[in-house]
Amino acid sequence: QEQLQESGPGLVKPSETLSLTCTVSGYSIRSGFYWGWIRQSPGKGLEWIGSIYHSGSTEYNPSLKSRVTISVDTSKNQFSLNLSSVTAADTAVYYCARAAAGNWGQGTLVTVSS
Amino acid sequence: DIQMTQSPSTLSASVGDRVTITCRASQSIGTWLAWYQQKPGKAPDVLIYQASRLQNGVPSRFSGSGSGTEFTLTISSLQPDDFATYYCQHYDTYSGTFGQGTKLEIK
Q1: Contact partners, residue B46, CB within 8 Å, separation at least 6
Q2: Is the pLDDT of residue A44 over 80?
Q3: For all residues of chain A together, what is the average pLDDT?
Q4: Which of B45, B73, B93, B94 to probe by mutation at the A interface, max A CB count within 10 Å?
Q5: Is A42 on the interface with B (CB under 8 A)?
């Protein structure tokens, strides 16, 4: 069974870019499935951000599409999230997960504040 | 967009009770539904996928049913470890839409 671990800064300034990486162990990203990002904030509950396939094919939540980029590095078995022009509304716990009801990472709190 | 609506938002129950949580989809989703359990400070864990398939390691007191637009999660006999928040999720190959959650509290 796959295990996932998020990493990245816990504090980001307004208008800057939030960057997180997810490292997958116990399963090769090249073997299949989409891999995605989800966030959880008190105001908006659980929100799917976007997903990527090992080929690089991506799908994004339309409400965030203009600010989101997800990329994959199969050599490191990692995928990454960039969310640009962040505001306080982007403060949340960010999770990486295998799509289609797969396992999740433990989550990382990202606070947007100056 | 498909919307997922859970009820109730909060449920008070006692150890040993049988409880049911309902999730409704705004349009038919077949059996592309998962149930998650989340405890404070932890990530959600998959309990049920494909509406009724029990994830490996999940106790058999948990069961899921339904198809189309109406789904239920049943816990046959509540245990102390079961008091948590439960979410339903419509999922497809690459995305997912979540219900707003049901907080299961000790009565």
Answers
A1: A101, A102, A103, B34, B35, B36, B55
A2: no
A3: 95
A4: B94
A5: no
Q: List pLDDT tens digits, range B43-101.
A: 999 999 999 999 999 999 999 999 999 999 999 999 999 999 999 999 998 889 999 99
Q: Is A3 on the interface with B (CB under 8 A)?
A: no
> Dihedral, CA atoms, A40, A43, A45, A46, nearest 10 degrees?
-40
3-class state of residue B81 by DSSP: helix
DSSP string, A47-72: EEEEEE-TTS-EEE-TTTGGGEEEEE
Provide the token pair at A82: 């960039």
Q: Do residue A99 and residue B46 have CB atoms under 8 angstroms apart? A: no
